[in-house]
Amino acid sequence: MLFRSHTAGLLSEQQYAAEKLKIAMDAADKKRKLEEDEIQAEINVRKAAAEEAKKALPGMHAATETAMGKSITANTNVEVARNGLEIAKENTKTAAEALKKWEEEHKKSYWGGLLPSFQDTGTGGTAAGAAGKIITPGQRLALVAAGTYESTLKDITKQFDQWVKLQTNAKGTAADQKKEYGNVAKAETYATEASAAFTRKEDAEEAENTLVTKTAEDVKKKEAELAAKKKADAATSQAERDAGKQKLPLGVAMTDLAGGDMKGAIATALKMSDTAAMYRERNPGVTARDAAEAVRKERGESVTGEEQNRMIDLASRIAGHKTDLTESMKMMDTAAQDSGVFIQDVGRLVRIMENLAKNLGPMHGRVDALESQVRDLSGQMASRGLNAGG
After folding, report:
1. What is the CA radius of gyration of the chain?
2. How far are the Cα atoms of 88, 131, 137, 160 from residue 149, in angstroms, in the given order?
3. Which of 354, 353, 341 lies closest to 385, judged by CA?
4. Does residue 24 or residue 362 have the better pLDDT?
């Protein structure tokens, strides 16, 4: 829209340049603001994360305390189970030794048949059944005749009951020992799990605390970074706008002349109008043949419409009026032969015109002198191919 208004003649070169500058500066300010907003958004996200972490800490601490209590209890239960196993081992040993001692003492009783008959009868049998296996029919008759049969049965019954008790105790303590081994294994497994759970809870709480601390530090750094950036952006923006005020009254900045815009425009002009003589003037010591070859290659390069428009636009801004292709080429050819003098002359013209603009009102007595300076310098620049007056 701005370019169409300019090409349609609705905007002067100076207005067009000023509007383009304002748009560029506003865009730069907006870009900087977006960058600041991104940093602020990051700060907000980190602050929100820190707040959530802080809220979670009390619950996490309580969970850690609970897990620690369970771990302590579980490890205590392991010690209890191990003590129980030691007791069971001792009981099993004592019962086995008592049974062995009794069997050693009675292995020859009743003609050596007492222990084998008990073992054959088993703890589930009866004393009478065991006696029936010990006393043969002949022995029974002899015992009856001697009047000792009944007392013998009582003694066998007593011995059988003792053996059964010892056997049962030995088997019972062995079973208890096996059970205690199981209890210890279970207790140790639960203690390991409880300890791992406590470690996880403790690590999670520590990580959350670290997150809160680290996030607070990051937020502080980011806030400092944002403050520094805002300060730098404000200074940059002001510097750019101050620099914008130093734009040429004709709509061109000194940076345009010294930078890529001028170089590009000169290169475009030389592609269309350079000569061997001009080339040798710019490059002392080059032979005529080499100059001709260089110009041939240069003139052989294509020039786009966009490149021509950029050259014409810069020439128009320097001249202060719309220049055509021929006039623009002539101006850039002159600049190509001695760009330093060209830029210096334009810069001097700028300063004179700025002085003229600043002093027209309050300093009427100096107007003629300033205008005389402009006419003199314009005449000098005209002799180099630059129309400064428009």
Report:
1. 56
2. 42, 11, 12, 16
3. 341
4. 24
Handedness of CA 233, 239, 240, 245 (dihedral sign): positive
Q: For residue 53, is pLDDT > 50?
A: yes
- pLDDT tens digits for 285-333? 889 998 899 989 888 888 899 988 988 988 887 776 788 989 888 888 8
- Cβ count near 75 (within 10 Å): 16
CA distance 45 to 219: 10
Question: Would you say 89 and 175 are in contact if contact means Cβ atoms under 8 Å apart?
Answer: no
pLDDT digits (tens, 9 = 90+) for 250-277: 445 555 554 567 788 888 988 889 898 9
Q: How far apart are the first and last CA of the chain?
A: 25
Phi then psi for residue 148, to 5 deg, are -115, 10
What is the C-alpha to C-alpha distance for residues 86 and 177, in angstroms, rounded to an integer? 8
DSSP readout, 294-317? HHHHHHTS---HHHHHHHHHHHHH
Residue 379 has a CB neighbour count (10 Å cut-off) of 11
Q: 387 pLDDT band (50/70/90 cuts)?
A: very low
Distance, CA of 254 to CA of 323 (rounded, Å): 19
Distance (Å, whole) CA 349 – CA 345: 6
What is d(CA 366, CA 348) in angstroms, rounded to the nearest whole number?
A: 17
Residue with tokens 């048949």: 113
Contact present, 98 and 166 (Cβ < 8 Å): yes
